Amino acid sequence: MTIKVFAKLCDCNPQTLRYYDSVGLLKPAEVDSWTGYRYYNEEQAVTFVKIRNLQKAGFAIEEIKELLLKDDLAIAKAFDAKIAEAEAHLREIKAIRASYLTEMSTIKEKINETRERIITDIKNYNPEEEFGMPRSDYEAMLAGIEQCFREAAESTEKLPDFGEMLAGAMAGASQAAPEARDFRTDPAFSVIYEKHGFRNVKDFFPEFASQESGEYGLDFHVTDDKYEHAIAFSNTILSMLLSANEGKNRTFHCNIALSADGRNHFRLLKKAF
Length: 273
Description:
Elements: H1 3-10, H2 14-22, E1 30-31, E2 38-39, H3 43-56, H4 61-67, H5 72-124, H6 127-131, H7 135-155, H8 162-169, E3 176-178, E4 189-196, H9 205-208, E5 214-222, H10 224-227, H11 230-244, E6 250-258, E7 265-271
Parallel strand pairs: 3-6, 5-6
Antiparallel strand pairs: 1-2, 4-7, 5-7
Helix pairs in contact: 5-7, 7-8
């Protein structure tokens, strides 16, 4: 019978039969070498029913090909295995549904705890010894950061992006964020200033504070006592740089990592345009 007649017998679209042919599931019993017409026999309707049901049950094409070579008992066992798999997945979904609200509540609590821990660490940080920054200036920076945290808490349940936070907390349109990034491996950046073995940033800050417009990377490798307050450390130096370069079109990125040799190292890199 022609593909049109066979498709009507199987209650399907001829395109389905052409697809089954192309993937090797059900090839015509005969193809006219002159016209290219496909012809099927009645026995192939049984094979079609097997294919359609196996496909509906979620078996992959390669799985169906293997099952077509087996008897009905093997196919029945395959259905049983598929049912068991589906039931296991359903149980998993039900368990996820049951724990969803609890886990959402838990993660929100953890986010709030993390926010509070970050704010507390920044509040307790003393910037005077390291940076020579007056407490009054530091308090002004804190106020901006706390405001951004409050706005983030109202609008989302995730930790705020520090780049966005500092952009709003500090004057200017610059982006400033602590990053896990080594600018020295980025060919777009080159070192324009460096200091090694320093004790406090305030001792050499004036040497690199003022910069022309551009994009800069601050790369710190510091001792344990400084790294312990990495967020406060990064925020403070970025705040000082933004203030020192107010009105300039500049972007500062900051990376702070633990020193490998017990000494403090700093490199200022600029991105080439």
